[in-house]
């Protein structure tokens, strides 16, 4: 594992970020967003539960995996702002890094970190501690949690989300 | 069992156990803990670790990741406050700034080719204004402006998107497009903010701009405000431009992950800061070869270059539709104020919603619009053709008069043939001989020339002025001459001779001051003074 590049946002980019609020990340602070998060997990569980041939154990494992992969893509894989409003002020920055202007341990961050842990504990319980299911859900959860660590803020491992500059 | 302490402990424990049962949800937790062990300590440790992490995360305090907070004691704070010296609200003027204030000429009455100045009350020959055809004093344009003022009032009172668009605006856009031979045009209310607005409307963060490093201040600000990656090539050096484009191509081939970017070549038609003309034919060749878009700032060249004043495209025989964006100013040869961008229909339409200074500033007053339309009409007529011919002849007359005849070595002339903008500088050898090393000293010396020709020869000339500290590379101090078609040949020849004499005189005087009256000791001095005696 090589820590290839640690880059911080440049000065002009941080000026542009402060020029206006970030519509792309402000919604995560809404209480409705928190409730929706739980609702989505319930919907996922229900969806996997009603598919014939899928045992309750498997449906729990699938729910946890889907939630972790989905939230990883949303918070850690996609960078920038999909509907641009600020001349690319957030280019190369993931949604997780945009939340609350990069402040760590805010209420929203705590909530979004705790949810996957609780989901994982529930999932291992309801799969009756099956070793294989445990291994899958545990690794998915841990990868998701590592990406959320404060020490991973704007750190790029294995070229994931590496910022590409056209010129120097 | 008789031990009272143990029995008390036992009863307490059972009470607590009973109590926990009444806590809602406690049986679930107890069940979970009972079930979860499953004779697998390793797994339990992992789960417990995660749970502890969750609790620890919940307890952590907020902090900013990029914060460099320094904790100061009361004493340190007091010390810092005691040490603090307020800076003056207004900085004391530097020598150059004070000179600028004292020596600036004030024109009394209207602007023109022969304005009256306040300092002496004399009428001077204006070689400082970009008043190429003296449209400001053309009677029928003035009358049209007054007529329009009566019909439309002064301002338009709103940005073009909010009731600020008048019929005359749309007419001028059509006039400009027809004049240049493009699909469409869009007009802006301020000349300076046109090019920054056009560049930043198309080129965003992550996009690529290749820009000439001799471009004017507005272009520099445009590339900066667009947040794009900017690469500069040496002024008018096509080999260097090709080198930059090639290096970008090679670089992008090497990186497969590179996203698709918009790419632009930005340059100026007739360079305000040097009087040079960009080789558009070669630029177009490179544009097609490397697939770039070209943004051409024709602020000074529109209405000036080319046989009929169509600018650089006419001069180099390039179809105007091939240049993606032709940006210009209506303040120079179009007799008004504001700027325009001409190009394809899509290019124009995009700016109506994304050109910052089009969207967010009030549209140009109707009378100025009419003046521009009239100026274009004049330029398009046989009279205009004659005016353009006069301008070219005048520019060449002045240029030849500077380059030939007596004292021709006293001036370093910058500016291509046919350009009505010329920069006059002291040759660097002359400066070295006179012992002038700093920029300020050179500026003062040039100002001496400006003052002398104003008094002695009734010429109004000016030093080229820049925003010190903001320019990418500050050009050497110079006197910027703007030729007009309304100057006569005789006047210009006389002016050129007078300026040359003054250039020579100022340097010789400096030499004498430096070495005393006894000259001839140093070789460089003798040559200079020999020139003065001619």
From TrEMBL, chain A:
It comes from Actinomortierella ambigua. Its main location: membrane. GO terms for cellular component: endoplasmic reticulum membrane. It comes from the Eukaryota. Signal peptide: none annotated. This is Uncharacterized protein. The lineage of its organism: Eukaryota, Fungi, Fungi incertae sedis, Mucoromycota, Mortierellomycotina. Keywords: Membrane, Transmembrane, Transmembrane helix. Pfam families: ORMDL. The chain crosses the membrane at residues 32-51, 58-78, 129-147. It is a multi-pass membrane protein. It is found in: Membrane.
TrEMBL record, chain B:
Pathway: Sphingolipid metabolism; Lipid metabolism; sphingolipid metabolism. Its cofactor is pyridoxal 5'-phosphate. Residues 124-499 form the Aminotransferase class I/classII large domain. One of its GO terms (biological process) is sphingosine biosynthetic process. GO terms for cellular component: endoplasmic reticulum; membrane. One of its GO terms (molecular function) is pyridoxal phosphate binding. Signal peptide: none annotated. Its EC number is 2.3.1.50. It comes from the Eukaryota. Gene3D superfamilies: Aspartate Aminotransferase, domain 1, Type I PLP-dependent aspartate aminotransferase-like (Major domain). Keywords: Acyltransferase, Lipid metabolism, Pyridoxal phosphate, Sphingolipid metabolism, Transferase. Residues 513-534 are annotated as: Disordered. Belongs to the class-II pyridoxal-phosphate-dependent aminotransferase family. This is serine C-palmitoyltransferase. It comes from Actinomortierella ambigua.
